[in-house]
Specification:
nine-stranded mixed sheet; alpha/beta; 17 helices; single chain
Length: about 450
């Protein structure tokens, strides 16, 4: 311990005396400029959006629904079994006075008979509720998530269309809180908020719960105030029917949520008032992988899909004429830079440190990096806890895990580098559980 303290003292002393020759130059000339030039402005941008939201909510009156448009809820189902009844029930018992059409689409119903029967069993219960309609749609041959969404959309009749996963349930005021935004004719889509409902199952699920609270509840609240929502979650998205008709529904392939978000944003440059809204009060609850193995398998697909979408399918979308300047900047910094460019650079940077700098210096540098990201993660979590969370007592139980978040985030980013490499060399987006190979093979991408 004394040797470490002596080394640290000498390192700091040499750094202050002559930073150009100090071994800690790596921190000053590589890490710090990146933070100051790119990451800190982005964090400040998000936080200023949160402040704007809080001030607006404080001085605004509760929004009154002038009308109650019909709502169609398309639930993509595959192997949920009896759990699909939780989702159906959470939609059937909404406080919304308008018509809610519930459409569970059972993909591969010939081999998922238990899920199909579980959906049919809800018929009498839903029928007994005023203004509620249940249409269970079996797709006997598996076609994947996009096929299920488009099949459900073709059967739906609602003015507002919701797309959701079969393992997701909702607060009973979700529909009412979501539909109120469509009083504004410029609002095309609403991005729902997601919580991790199985966070108590394992440390892996609990860490993902913190990630969701910071990256969805806090971050998207800030981005929404500047009409710069980065993605409409595939597990929970709400759309004006007209916009889905305009863009032709969901497109084949994978990462259909970001794909659809980018296709909607392609109209922002021409129609400057169009908006995608995120509302922290439009709440859903979903299950996440409860093991680290399952988590990294999921992220291998997610992060590889990002490269496929940004660089192969939607590289022409990055134009101010299509997206408008605000979304172009946010998508470039928050999407291309942070999610695509940063992970490989971080991997190369880590290898460089280990290969060229003494381990003691590596320890100091990693310690400083850890402290920075721990401060950022803790700051946004506490802002979420005290000002945005509708369940602060429940969320407070996650505070002891905050010290693990920088390590968890670093591991996720390093894994993203592998996912990007897998996409570049092996076309990883075609190795997806979201659609069978015979569907992906027909995609032009």
């Amino acid at each position: 311990m004394e040797e470490w303290m002596l080394f640290l003292f000498r390192g700091i002393r040499s750094f202050t005396d002559d930073p150009l020759t100090s071994e800690l130059w790596v921190v000053v000339f590589q890490f710090v400029p990146y933070i100051l030039a790119l990451e800190l402005p982005y964090y400040i941008f998000v936080f200023s959006g949160i402040l704007k939201y809080l001030l607006r909510k404080r001085h605004s009156r509760p929004e009154i629904l002038n009308r109650h448009p019909s709502v169609s809820c398309i639930i993509t189902c595959y192997s949920e079994g009896k759990d699909i009844q939780k989702t159906i029930r959470s939609l059937a018992y909404q406080v919304y006075p308008g018509i809610i059409e519930i459409i569970p689409v059972i993909d591969g119903a010939s081999v998922n008979d238990d899920t199909y029967r579980a959906g049919l069993e809800m018929g009498d219960e839903v029928k007994s509720l005023p203004g509620r309609v249940l249409k269970v749609l079996p797709k006997w041959k598996r076609g994947g998530r996009v096929s299920s969404l488009n099949s459900g959309f073709a059967l739906s009749t609602g003015d507002v269309v919701m797309a959701m996963d079969g393992d997701t349930s909702f607060d009973n005021d979700m529909v009412q809180n979501a539909v109120r935004h469509f009083n504004d004719p410029d609002v095309m889509c609403v991005s729902g908020c997601l919580r991790v409902r199985n966070w108590r199952d394992s440390p892996a699920a609990a860490l993902q719960a913190i990630e969701y609270l910071v990256s969805i509840l806090a971050s998207k609240t800030g981005l929404s105030e500047f009409n710069a929502v980065n993605n409409i979650s595939g597990a929970f998205g709400i759309f004006r029917r007209d916009v889905l008709t305009l863009i032709g529904g969901w497109d084949a392939g994978t990462a259909e949520d970001l794909d659809l978000t980018l296709r909607v944003k392609n109209y922002f440059g021409r129609h400057g008032n169009m908006r995608i809204v995120f509302d922290p009060e439009v709440m859903g609850h979903t299950d996440v992988p409860d093991t680290f193995r399952g988590f990294f398998r999921q992220r291998l697909r997610w992060d590889g899909d990002l490269f496929y979408l940004y660089f192969i399918k939607h590289f022409r979308s990055f134009s101010p004429k299509l997206m408008g300047w605000p979304n172009l900047i946010v998508s470039t910094v928050g999407g291309l830079l942070f999610q695509i460019v940063t992970p490989p650079l971080l991997f190369v940077y880590t290898v460089f440190l280990l290969a060229s700098v003494p381990l003691a210096v590596v320890g100091i540098i990693m310690g400083l990096v850890y402290l920075f990201y721990f401060a950022v993660e803790s700051f946004f979590f506490l802002v979420m806890l005290f000002f945005l969370s509708e369940r602060p007592r429940e969320d407070a139980w996650l505070i002891p895990l905050l010290p693990l978040m920088p390590v968890f985030t670093l591991s996720t980013r390093l894994w993203s580098a592998f996912a990007i490499l897998w996409q570049m060399t092996g076309r990883g987006h075609l190795d997806s559980s979201m659609a069978p190979w015979w569907v992906l093979k027909k995609s032009k991408f």
